[in-house]
Protein: RNA polymerase II assembly factor Rtp1 C-terminal domain-containing protein
Organism: Stomoxys calcitrans
Amino acid sequence: MSNVMKYWLLLESLNLPGISRTAQFKNENDRVLENITLIQKSLSLCPEEIVGSIVANLQSNHLKHRENEIAKNMSIDAKYSMYSLLIVQTIGKSVNLLSDAVEDLISENHKTLFIALLEDIVDKGVKPNLHPGFYKSKGSIFCRNAESQTNFYRAELIVEVLSSIIHKPTLRMSEDIFLCYMAAIFSILLACDAKEYTVEQNCLAALQSKLNKIWTDMPKVLYYRNLMLLYGILPAEQKPRIHKEMLLKLWSNGGFVALLFALQKSEKTEEQPISQVVEKLVAQPSYPRRAQESLVQQILRFLATSVDNKDLGVHMGAALVSLRRLYDNNDENKELVKKWLKGQLQPLLEFHEDRITVMEWNEFCTRISLLFHMFCTSTVECMPSELLTAYLPVLVACHQEVCECTEKSFTMAVSNHLAQLILRILNNRGKEELRGIIKSFVLAQYPLEWLHKHANVIIDNDPLQLESLRIVQKDMESETNSLFSGHMNTLAIILKESSFSLLCYQVFITLFGLFTNLPKQSSEEVNANDDLLQTEEDVENKIVRDITQKYNGKIQIINALQILITHKPLKILLMENIKDVLIVLQDMLALYAVETDDDIDSSVMTILLTLMGEILENATDVMEDVKMELHKHLSKLEPKVLNPKLKFQISCLRKQIQGPTNINHTSKERFEEARLLLESPEPYMQVEGIQKFIQLIKEKDTFTLNSVHVVSALALNTLKSTESYTFLNCVRLFAALVYVDEHTIMEILCDDYLNDSAATDYRLVVGEALLKVCKEIGQLCYRYKGLLLNTYMSGCRSPLDEFRYSSFSNLAQLCKILSFEVHQYFEELLQLINCELSTGKYMPAKRAAVMVLSDLLAAMDNLLDYQDMLLPIYRLLKLLASTESADEKIRLHAAIGLENLSVKCKELLTAIGQPQLQKEIKITGIKDKEKKKLNNHILYMN
């Protein structure tokens, strides 16, 4: 104990870095010499004896034979490091740094001095004796005197001593100590690989075990970050050793998270997102199979942990991209993900008799939220939705039960997540596949590979927590004979409440077409099990079962159609795609046309004929071939129908197809009707008013043409609508108005686009509308080239990033239309692009600026007409395409522009090389021979 106290007193007397009393020395060398003097007075040992004492304490035969090499040519710093090493070794060996006993406690002052001495050892003993490769890089954090040479024997000795001390949890080591310690280990390994230094095989294994112990004990993020630093310092020929260590640690448990957070702290990932860097490092197809499996499992665990953790949630994108790439690598990874996915929903699929509560509500919400993030957060980062197709009945059943719960406050989030998962599955299916899914839900006949929620697993209230739910198991009979069983209604409700209007339209058309195409069940099959001795209850159950089997599909279709038809955007989509509806009706008529009168359902036929009459009366662009097909089927159907009302309705419909009657409305009444609809707050009524105005303009209605300003004001006000289909139809109205008074329409749109007091979203919409109007009238808009180009170029100078991006994008499209008219504006245009590329900070705007030049080149017909513009464009695009530090998409746009220029140059040279066609103009009737008279006698005509 007295010996240890002696070393503590010696440690207190030393001048160590970070201690205030070290300021009395003029330079670092004086401090080191003073410390050596103090140590020699206390220990009375020469450097060679110090080395021998350290090796003896280590009890290493390997180092015993290398004492002379260790003590050879020792500089002042080397001597000081050896003296300090003996002090550290003695204190670490004599004091139990892991004990919490009172007699073993160390004061904070002693801990500070001890760690400061360790930093001195690292600075004077480790850093000068690293592998030479660590000093070659200009940005290296390691340096030494030019005269110094690496002594691997000395580095190995220091590593052995530090390995017994560096892992003490009571000592808060600095990151620099760990970094230098790892650098020393890798220095020895690199020297052994290059045969510059020789150690026994068991020593190499011991060095590797030291690295593994650091990986186990210290924060894995710090370890991986140190590996990245060392990898960046070493030259290329010496990187493989550390690269191999990085891969081994990445494949081990916790490696993915370590890499993720190490890259977050790295400054080298500013040029590209972390997700791209992680994806390239993690999802390599060349990795061994077990390594890829380890990474998949690590990422899945990380995603499960990140759902409810805001700090980890920001990295879910990088994890999802990596998982998707690993999933696409091979079939083994796909099976691993599928197995994991089934495990997430497995508790809902089977019945366990030994427990009541299957899952707590929080766990259920977490799992559904995880699936939502994995499949719905992005179209790029997400997992393929086809993985969830087999679980569609499970998700629909869960959504139905969640929506039936009375407490909506805490079920809203999980209900939205389930709905988004279902919509993603349906929206990513092809036309035939979607039809098959809808048909399966209508008939309740699912493919064999599909999975279903167990009927006895339900969502119920939690009696211990009144404001919570739980997933429980109850012994209850399956309601297979319910009249309206099935989940088609739930799907229809989800579609109605969503923004997937096109998907809603596709499902509506599919259901509409299935109405008359459902498989029929014969009466013999229904009544095959009749029994005269059945009880009254059995008879009722049988009636319900028979009705369910025969009519359940049609009942579900009717209910679903009734739900979907209330979806406001659906009516507009039906009117815009009226041909699809008529084709479905045509198929229905074709089926009825080949059946007998007994098989024709008069109520269904009445509905079909009424619907067809409404469509033909209101639709203005029905194709003639569709009308003729309808007329042909109606002609075949009319003789077979015996019902006089149906026969009369069919006759009227045939006459309507042959020659529709005109509606007698005055001009002003029709205008006011359209205006009333357009001023309505409901989007679908606004679109109907727009359609009426367009029709009035096409018919050249006098009252409408005299009120162009009123219609323009109404259209501009309608542009503020947040509904996309309202905006698109409003653009169609502007395109129609342009043919009436194009100058006024152009000026109105340009003024509103440059109106700084208006909302930015509205100005962006006006800009798109202006561009679509230009596309509508095509090259005729050259008369307004000055107005249009100045408008968009003024927008390119806006301080708003999104507005500049929109202006450059619209300007690129306009240059495609007015390529030949850009000459006098070219200098200003090029200046705008250079300004955005050099000073702009919004990357999408820069990309759009480069796209202007690319689209301008694509629109050029004859390069000779643009020869004064080609050289500046070529130089700028060539510079952007060859700059490696530029944005990848900017380089892509530049490369596309150069490719367009190359193709057009080749076409020009080919045209020049071809022989020129000579035109000969001959004027007949001058100095020609006199024609023979045709009225001569036949004998003289020859």
